[in-house]
Each structure stands twice: as structure tokens, then as C-alpha cells.
Amino acid sequence: MANKRVGVYPGTFDPVTLGHMDIIRRGLRLVDRLVIGVATNPGKGPVFSLEERIEMVRSEFGPLVKDTGTELQVEPFSGLLVDFATRMDAQLVLRGLRAVADFEYEYQMVGMNAHLNPDVETVFLMASEKYSFIASRLVKEIASLGGDISSFVTPTVAKSLYERVGRK
Ligand code: ADP
After folding, report:
1. Secondary structure (3-state) at 40
2. Ligand 1 atom with least separation from CA of 97
3. 140 a catalytic residue
């Protein structure tokens, strides 16, 4: 189909949280095809391998896509985000915004990316109030300390995370 609206939602997703899922769910309404770009990001020392992170995102989203009619793709990516977006034929990059800390980082990244490729527009969705405090990093920390993470991730993700970093 010509003039399809395609978006890319990049992240590390180590692991995918209810916050990410909320952004994806809302993002699906904005585009005809949404590509979730799972970053290799060795620098961040992910707990889950690239393959595991992709698999988690894929299995969480199978049922959801049927409802929306939007095409959802989950792809690995490394290198420049603007190059990944171009390769995916995407006109927009989707990001979630939580607090002021996100804003500063995102503001710089948008500026740099706009210079690298002015044809790719970054669109921000405000984190829903319910999920605005959820961060993968903290979820991992809480899991490793044996805390309850059931309000932050799905039961399947929680199980994998406890198996990997903590008790239960
Ligand atoms: P990154 O390595 O880019 O920080 P993340 O996996 O942490 O990757 O996040 C990917 C995107 O999802 C970012 O735009 C981030 O701001 C957003 N995000 C993460 N957690 C939430 C949340 N709880 N609510 C809304 N957006 C979120």
C-alpha cells in the first residue's frame, strides 16, 4: 500500500515493562505499521540477550495486534537510529517520556537525529500516570532484591526475570 505510515519504537527493553507496552499500545493507533527496534546495546550490559528480549516483546504482543489491525514487527537493531528508521521505511520515531530526566536526554537526541536525517520526525507520548515511574533498570534491581514486580511487568516477564536475577 502506498503512503503507509510507518513508525519505529526503539529501546533496550531489558525487559519489556508495562510502561513500554502502554506506549506500544497507544503507538499502534498512530501508524499503519509499527516496528519495535530492540537495541543490541552491549554498553548497557543487558540482563537478557538480544534474542530473549525480542522473544519477550513478540510474545507479549501477539494478541494485542489482532485487535488493532496495525502491523507490528519486532526487529533487532544496532548502529544509528536514523539509519534503522530509513531501512524500515519509517517516517517517525516513537518515544515515551516519563520525567524531566527523560526530557533532557531525548531533547538532545532529537536535535542530533534531526541533523542526521531531517525526514525522520520524533513523536513523544507522555507516559500514562499509572506507569510513569516504571523503569527497566529499577524493575531488575527490585527483582534481584526479592521484591514484588507484579505491578511493573507481565507474569511471564516477571518469571523470566526472577529466574535470571533473583529468587522465586
Ligand atoms: P533506552 O535504552 O532507549 O532507554 P528503554 O527500553 O529504557 O530504552 O526505553 C525505550 C523507550 O521507552 C524510551 O523512549 C523510554 O523513555 C520509554 N519508556 C520506558 N519506560 C517507560 C514508561 N514506564 N512509560 C513510558 N515510556 C517509557
Report:
1. coil
2. 16
3. no
